[in-house]
Specification:
Rossmann fold; GMP Synthetase, Chain A, domain 3; 28 strands
Length: 649
């Protein structure tokens, strides 16, 4: 029978009382919390929450970075039969209003002063929010707000009640059932208010254990928890699977120390979206460009060998003796030190998901000996739907259905999933639940894709975003914007892209440059610039991006199905798309509707054949201030190529 999170905690505490469960870096020193210490902390927090009035079925919001006491707070709430609701710590206060009111949240546990200030700001809009506890007291000493207290006070209150209610904690933990609601995750909300995804202990633990068996994970794994806990991907890897397997989760000191902490911990099991792997590689390439000529020559020679031999070794293919010896030498000189520099010296399994990863990026990591693979899933499926087996990792697929999963395609090409890990429903949204979850148990993912002859799943785009061109050279051709955008983002100089074309005669695009990568490129060519807006509009930068766009077009021309998605015109935006400006979600998904509305004048200019368009845009800073920026944006034509007949993706 599937267990529950409180029972898993107590099992680990009984089996490995002194083994490390969590580590947190504070003031440069790693602090360890054993399973027995964690169980005691959860015991005290649960008693404190119960004394504060938390009851079975109620919701508790949790906001902050990955912190041991926040994890313990979620476990304490689950022990009482309550439901933790993690929210994004980088969200502005206004983004909390809907989930707080939708889930009728009266209790909040947050990390620090920043999160406390957000919640205090919302008290008039969320009058039911009565109690707020904080982990980090810095800056909060002189706050005098009703219902505001530290986690230390909550723990002390729980400790005081322990003697009065010695059997309470064990009885509450035993009362929790696998079918009880374990967590409420709010989706990104790309087209409106976010939806609360209800998951049970059974759904989350079942998928965590299926992933454990797939990759043969043990309690000896080390994981670095550095992504937002509100993102279901991080939550699965550093919470659900942590408790299912019993490995060690390490919490970095801060976002700025992640790269240092990654090297110190040397995780064996690692998860990151493609943008993280892109950022790591961009940093490496920038450093190599500034290296001496001898180092660059050695790096280039070894990487040519790695691309030819390393991926074959990783895939378990036959490699000649001389190539094996040469690769072993390269491992001593380049690949090993590079893995160590990246913090991947001990990685046994690394996963990426959320967006497509570029083939060059994917093969780079595998070529230097990192077992990087892709997976497919979503908040609604508790992540684990398809995983890539060892020796079968491919850049253009997302793996095979794992234990317990069935998949099929609807007549329109939409992917349907049936799995023990499916959501129970959307909170207070029966209509939305019925749209995606049929009586037959099939979940409608909203993704368009197909299965390859080898049984691997290939995702093309979101089904609702797949359109058709009308008129022009590619009249009637399929238009898959996300597929094209991902191809553009495979280039290190392009950070974000948004494509338009449905029911139009051609495809046009907005592009964001990667400021760090393009800035370094410009500096090495002695190109002066005053900031992002100035750099983005330099003719040399447009030439750089044009080359990327035309390479994507040439690649698309090889695919008879998607050749019509080639980009005819594009512009480089004067600002980076930002979640604070409502252009991206907190998981960096494009809000297409909001962008189309905000930048309608630029879309009109692209399709009207203009060469320049003036734009003024309001931007919001982290401290809440706003400002206007303006620019004259160039619009350029890109070369498109005839379709190569008989080719398919």
């Amino acid at each position: 029978m599937t267990s529950t999170f409180p029972r898993l905690l107590l099992d680990h505490a009984a089996r490995w009382p002194d083994a490390p469960a969590l580590r947190e870096k504070a003031y440069g020193v790693w602090q360890t919390l054993s399973w027995a210490q964690l169980a005691q902390l959860v015991h005290e927090l649960a008693l404190g929450l119960a004394a504060a009035g938390l009851r079975r079925g109620e919701h508790v919001v949790v906001v902050g970075e990955n912190r041991p006491r926040l994890y313990a707070s979620m476990l304490a709430a689950q022990t009482l039969g309550a439901v933790p609701v993690p929210l994004y710590q980088d969200a502005v206060a206004a983004e909390f209003v809907f989930p707080l009111n939708n889930a009728e949240i009266a209790f909040a546990i947050v990390e620090d002063q920043e999160q406390v200030d957000k919640l205090l700001e919302l008290r008039e809009q969320c009058p039911q929010l009565k109690r707020i506890w904080f982990d980090d007291p810095r800056g909060l000493r002189h706050y005098d707000e009703a219902g505001l207290a530290s986690l230390d006070e909550l723990i002390a209150q729980g400790r005081a009640h322990a003697a009065e209610r010695p059997e309470f904690f064990a009885a509450e933990a035993a009362a929790v059932q696998p079918g009880d609601v374990a967590a409420l995750f709010f989706t990104s909300g790309t087209t409106g208010n976010p939806k609360g995804v209800i998951h049970t202990h059974a759904s989350l633990i079942d998928r965590a254990q299926a992933g454990q068996r797939f990759d043969k994970l043990t309690e000896h794994e080390e994981v670095l928890a550095y992504l937002p806990p509100a993102w279901v991907g991080q939550n699965i890897f550093s919470y659900s699977q942590w408790l299912a397997v019993g490995y060690v989760v390490n919490c970095p000191e801060s976002a700025s120390t992640v790269s240092i902490d990654l090297k110190e911990i040397g995780p064996t099991y690692y998860f990151a979206p493609p943008r993280v792997f892109e950022g790591l590689l961009t940093t490496v390439m920038i450093r190599m460009e500034d290296a001496s000529a001898i180092k660059r020559w050695l790096f280039d020679r070894c990487m040519r060998l790695a691309r030819r031999v390393g991926t074959r070794l990783m895939d378990g293919q036959a490699v000649g003796l001389l190539d094996r010896l040469a690769y072993a030498l390269g491992n001593v000189l380049i690949y090993g030190p590079l893995r160590n520099t990246l913090g991947f010296s001990r990685v046994r399994v690394a996963y990426t998901a959320g967006e497509a990863i570029g083939p060059d990026l994917f093969s780079f990591y595998r070529a230097i000996g990192i077992n990087l693979k892709q997976l497919y899933g979503s908040t609604e499926t508790a992540v684990f739907v398809c995983l890539q087996p060892d020796h079968e990792a491919r850049a253009d697929t997302v793996g095979v259905p794992i234990e317990g999963v069935e998949i099929k395609l609807s007549g329109s090409g939409e992917l349907l999933v049936r799995s023990p890990g499916l959501l129970k429903g959307y909170y207070k949204n029966e209509a939305a639940t019925r749209e995606v979850l049929g009586d037959d148990g099939w979940f409608h993912t909203g993704d368009a894709g197909f299965l390859t002859p080898g049984g691997h799943l290939k995702i093309i785009d979101r089904a609702k975003d797949v359109g058709r061109l009308m008129g022009g050279a590619f009249d009637g051709a399929m238009f898959a914007p996300k597929y094209v955008e991902n191809k553009l983002k495979f280039f290190p100089h392009i950070k974000e892209a948004v494509c338009f074309g449905d029911k139009r005669d051609k495809v046009c695009a907005f592009i964001n440059i990667d400021f760090e990568a393009v800035g370094n490129w410009a500096e090495r060519r002695n190109l002066p610039y005053a900031g992002y807006t100035d750099l983005a509009q330099r003719p040399e930068v447009y030439d750089l991006i044009l080359d990327c766009v035309e390479k994507v077009n040439a690649d698309l021309a090889q695919d008879e199905l998607l050749a019509g998605s080639q980009i005819s015109r594009f512009l480089v935006l004067h600002k980076e798309l930002d979640a604070d400006d409502g252009e991206l979600t907190r998981t960096r998904k494009v809000r297409r509707g909001a962008i189309a509305e905000k930048y309608g004048v630029l879309i009109d200019a692209l399709y009207a054949g203009k060469a320049v368009q003036h734009i003024e845009t309001q931007v919001k800073f982290e401290d809440g201030r706003t400002s206007m920026i303006s620019a004259d944006l160039r619009i350029v034509e890109a070369k498109t190529f005839p379709t190569v007949k008989g080719q398919a993706a």
